[in-house]
Design goal:
Number of strands: 0
Structural class: mainly alpha
Strand content: under 5%
Largest sheet: none
Distance between the termini: 31 Å
Length: 234
């Protein structure tokens, strides 16, 4: 009688296991999207973004400890939608794909935070997932900036010469730059929100960054002290 519950727990643990490289790959991919792709020539950025976002969506799904199969199916559907939108080149479909990506990555960020909260010890993987969650929020906000700009081209004082021609995708590096500068509360000020919707978004970004850092650092410090105390007691 006592062996069956243990067997169930072991089975669940095995289902929740994931390769060690997944967390590192997630951080690597999001870093490429935010920091490397914007430095590439303009004509290669579009294809680079499309490829890396595809890999990022799949890797993000694999990085979840729980519900990975369901999230992976959702990621596969999302990849198809994004590629159809990019192939069609219609701004409406691109806006829909950005919105779906935004919702997906919000789910992933909450999943990472939950995973970090469940861990009893601060390991390298926990630290990597904490950084990945922080950077993924930057990706989330860059996607929202793109959606807002597609709905209101005058929302920010970007120089969007291609906005009327359905070429907002070529400004993704600018969206990411503005999102991270605001999200990290750096705020150089050369790009500013103009419309009420854009201003509300800017306030949300500026508040979310410090809140994330405060919560994650508090969890990591608490886990470190708790584990150290356990080791001392032993």
């Amino acid at each position: 009688m006592t062996d069956k519950p243990a067997t169930r727990l072991d089975t669940r643990a095995s289902l929740g296991a994931k390769p060690a490289w997944v967390s590192a790959s997630l951080l690597f991919l999001v870093s490429l999207i935010l920091f490397v792709v914007p430095t590439l020539p303009q004509q290669t950025q579009g294809s680079s973004y499309n490829l890396l976002f595809t890999l990022l969506v799949i890797t993000a799904a694999l990085s979840m400890d729980r519900g990975r199969k369901k999230i992976f199916r959702l990621a596969a559907i999302l990849v198809v939608v994004v590629w159809i939108a990019n192939f069609a080149g219609l701004e409406v479909l691109l806006t829909v794909s950005r919105t779906l990506l935004f919702l997906f990555f919000v789910l992933i960020v909450f999943g990472l935070i939950t995973q970090i909260a469940r861990r009893k010890q601060v390991t390298t993987r926990v630290i990597v997932e904490s950084i990945s969650g922080y950077l993924l929020l930057g990706v989330v906000f860059s996607l929202i900036v793109g959606v807002v700009t597609s709905l209101q081209p005058e929302a920010f004082n970007f120089t969007l010469s291609g906005a009327e021609g359905g070429e907002l995708a070529s400004f993704r590096s600018d969206f990411a730059y503005y999102a991270l500068v605001t999200y990290t509360t750096l705020g150089y000020g050369e790009i500013v929100p103009v419309t009420p919707l854009a201003k509300s978004l800017a306030m949300l970004m500026a508040i979310t960054g410090p809140i994330y850092l405060t919560v994650i650092i508090a969890m990591l410090v608490g886990k470190f002290l708790s584990y150290s105390q356990e080791m001392t007691d032993k």
